[in-house]
Amino acid sequence: MSTPPFLTLPGCARAVRLETARGSFAALHAVPQGRPRVATALLVPGFTGSKEDFVGLLEPLAEEGVEVLAVDQRGQYETGGPDDVDAYALEELALDLLAVTAELRSAAPARPLHLLGHSFAGYVVRDAVLRATGSPLPWASLTLLSTGPAALDDAETERAKLLLAALPTMSLEEIWRAMKDMEEASGATPELLDPEVAEFLHRRWVSNVPAAMTAMARQLISEPDRVDELAKVALPKLVLSGERDYAWPVELQAQMALRLSAEHIVVPGAGHSPNAERPEGTAVSLAAFWSNVS
């Protein structure tokens, strides 16, 4: 899971709820201060993540004139959702994203809207783009952040299967404690976290809807390769990754970029979550890309 570098929102940002035709979504909203808004960015977090994964991007992007909305998807952290696995099918999440997009376009119809999906959300944004109708599309660009062309790498597939086996019989609190026990037993040096961040990670985990975690984990181990479909969509695309990635090898992400005729940017010093691990460098790369395509 992504670990936010901090939790205190910058002065340009606040927590909001976005009302859409498909329900209400918890979000973080950042607005440029003292300068024109040149673009809007919609940031979508991955499996077991949340809008807070993008907290480090809010201020640097706002300083570039980008209004930012980072959302919790259905079933994630503060958005919530029903106890029904079918409610979290990829199609449903993509339709949610189209509803969020419609609200943002309605609020600023003339401003470019850039779409970004991290990790599992790469599937969601891809499906949303492939489902979108009309011309032009409602987005000015698509960024795939630390995601892959299809299902997870083999090692991570096994982890997802372990979670799927545990979810029917264990509470999220019990799974959390089991994960911590496994981490301690492995002998790995635990990451030293600010107590506030550590408490947040626990609170976020137990706040997820188990049915949503089940649906997303199943998708992560079964998603087909749809890169060729996406390549046919006339939309500027960027593939952004860290120097290493436990979920999809960086080399595989580079190949995906070639298939999409997209640039592949590697954020120095980052792993699976450049947005949280190296937010300044990630923001610079995103702002440059968006500026070139707007």
Give a summary of the structure in a few sentences.
By secondary structure, this protein is of the alpha/beta class. The chain has eleven helices and eight strands. Helix 1 packs across helix 11.
What does this structure look like?
A hairpin with a 2-residue loop joins β1 and β2 (23-30). With 294 residues, this protein is an alpha/beta fold. 41% of the residues lie in helices and 17% in strands. The chain has an eight-stranded mixed β-sheet with strand order 1-2-4-3-5-6-7-8, with helices on both faces. α1 (55-62) crosses α11. It has one domain (13-293): Alpha/Beta hydrolase fold, catalytic domain (Rossmann fold, 3-Layer(aba) Sandwich). The chain is globular, with a radius of gyration of 18 Å. InterPro entries: AB_hydrolase, AB_hydrolase_1, AB_hydrolase_fold. It comes from Streptacidiphilus fuscans.
